[in-house]
Design goal:
2 domains; disordered N terminus; 7 strands; globular; Rossmann fold
Amino acid sequence: MRLNIFGLGSGAKDAAAAEVDASQTAPEAPMPEVASKSPKGARKGGVKTASQSKPRASSRRAQFPPEPTESLKKRVKWLVEHIEEFKQRLEPTMDAGNTEEFVSLMNNFLAFISAYSDTVAYDTYELGPAYPESLKFFHKACLELAWRMEEKAFVEIAEAELQPGQPLKEVVSQCIAGSYSRMEELSDLVDFSQTRSIVVLGCGKVPASLFYLQDQTRVPAIVGIDNVQEAVDCSNALVSKLNLDRVRIVKADATTFDYSFFDAIYFGPFASPRADVLKQIRSTARSNATIILREPHFTGSLAFERVLPYMQPSFDLIKAGDSKKYLGRFMLRHYVLKMR
């Protein structure tokens, strides 16, 4: 069955998202925790630094999003202020050497966007003037977070003592275990029994998606691409250590890569610019290729560019993943597409 949700806008305006919106059951989003001087509405118990002052007391209304009965203007203003506060706190840590502080702040931000549930206010914000700069900033921040966490994961896996026949899911370090488990819904979305080759875009230093495909499918040729040489080198080192005989990693640009050799294409969120990657897939992929898209869901568009609403008339949406179970920290959802 084909699902027609193309041409609809962001967040709640995506019909599939509206149908099974995980945010409907999410708790109210607290405002970000505050280091150093605490602004009005700060909540106690945040990440502390040596210079942090004692947070001021504040009302519950200041700590949490306004009720849906409040004016839309007030609700959007609250959201804009808190997103801006995250930007101000994250910016000085992006290029600093304090990975622990940066990761802690990013985890607070990701918890915030996963808990926020006011779809109308978010849609209004997404259509407003502040959104483009926020997307640019938080996309960069999420790429930086993924890179730093993969650095740690690479060392852990490279130094691990492996048991013969040990499942790769057990090998994947705890800090990226979710990347593997979120692939597990693919068995319900795609029949890989006739797939002879698949390419994964933007596989990174620790290609958990490729680990899953080696572990859970019989696809003979599994290829990962990345445009950063260090990521390719690290991935190949792990492929060799783990004896992944069906996997290989190559350095390539997803915007110029020839996709005609593959039965399936896994278009992850880290391959960008996403619109350009999509054009290249449309230009070079086989007409019967299966495209598996990992797409921002609701507030996930604060960190990753949406491409799904712009895929018509070139693609049909065949299936959508479970928006309640497999979104993960970046609020991303799987979609299966076929070219028309």
